[in-house]
Write a structure and sequence with these properties.
single chain
Length: about 290
């Protein structure tokens, strides 16, 4: 994480939670750093179209100790759920089997320092964690929690399919721009972004799609809702509705790559002189579906 954020231009401080003991415990770990100031708790797998600036600006520490962001979902059982009286939160329930509302807690919160005293009194939940929803529930009893529904789309990217859907939402908002090199034999259709240093040679790209800085697309087809990362090489291949992260190579695969997530430094290639079969090197939690 430190390496990935190096060079982002932001001034960052890191605090290590040595054991996964819950979100409230993470706040507890950061107590000395947070001090006596209001703070934002933002879970990293949440993606919001319009950001959180307006949400944070609405926070009034004189009127509330917590402001939580909500969105309506069809299946609230996967989330913490809130019940409202106007903008006042009157109940929060963590992943209920029978949800009392369709308002899911999005994983973005603003707190005053009052939450630290509440967290200090928490007992571990059944899964051995200090739950942030339990801290919010205590603040709710004091009538000091308000809520705001999001505007625009929100995506929880906790599952692989969620990442592809989030990628689709982001690419829906891009504008066509060509900063790299596209030869005369190539065809770009729709909203395609070609970043600086990228090369497209004898290929067809249908947007929305993005070709990252320094990437090379040669004799290939890139379909809609595909993100090709920096330094990626795609040669004699078809890739559609996929994310290919930086430094990966997709060279002459025997079939189209679609609905796929390829991490950094992945190599996919077709080999014609070997017996029919598959040679796979897969990381933890990989999902592979093979067919003719």
């Amino acid at each position: 994480i430190r390496e990935a954020l190096k060079g982002s231009g932001a001034q960052l401080s890191f605090m290590v939670q040595h054991q996964p003991r819950g979100l409230a415990h993470a706040v507890q770990v950061a107590w000395d750093f947070l001090g006596q100031e209001p703070f934002v708790l933002y879970l990293g797998d949440n993606l919001l179209e319009n950001g959180i600036a307006d949400f944070v600006a609405r926070f009034d520490p004189g009127q509330m100790d917590a402001l939580i962001l909500l969105t309506r979902v069809s299946d609230p059982r996967r989330f913490g759920v809130a019940v409202l009286d106007g903008e006042q939160v009157v109940q929060v329930v963590e992943k209920p089997q029978v949800p009392p509302s369709q308002l899911a807690i999005c994983g973005v919160y603003v707190f005053t320092p009052a939450v630290h005293q509440v967290i200090a009194t928490l007992k571990p939940s059944a899964r051995g964690e200090l739950e942030i929803t339990h801290a919010i529930a205590q603040l709710v009893e004091q009538r000091r929690v308000q809520a705001q529904e999001i505007t625009g789309w929100w995506k929880d990217t906790g599952l692989p399919l969620d990442l592809l859907e989030a990628n689709q939402l982001v690419l829906d908002g891009i504008q066509r721009r060509i900063a790299g090199q596209v030869d005369e034999a190539s065809q770009l259709t729709g909203r395609v972004a070609v970043e600086e240093g990228a090369e497209i040679v004898r290929s067809r790209v249908r947007g929305p799609a993005i070709i990252g800085a320094g990437a090379k697309v040669i004799d290939s087809y890139i379909g809609p809702y595909t993100a090709i990362g920096a330094g990626v090489v795609v040669e004699e291949a078809e890739v559609e509705y996929s994310i290919v992260d930086e430094g990966s190579q997709v060279v002459r695969p025997p079939m189209r790559i679609h609905e796929s997530l390829l991490g950094r430094g992945v190599e996919i290639s077709g080999v014609a002189d070997l017996p029919l079969g598959h040679r796979l090197v897969l990381g933890d939690g990989s999902v592979v579906r093979l067919g003719k």
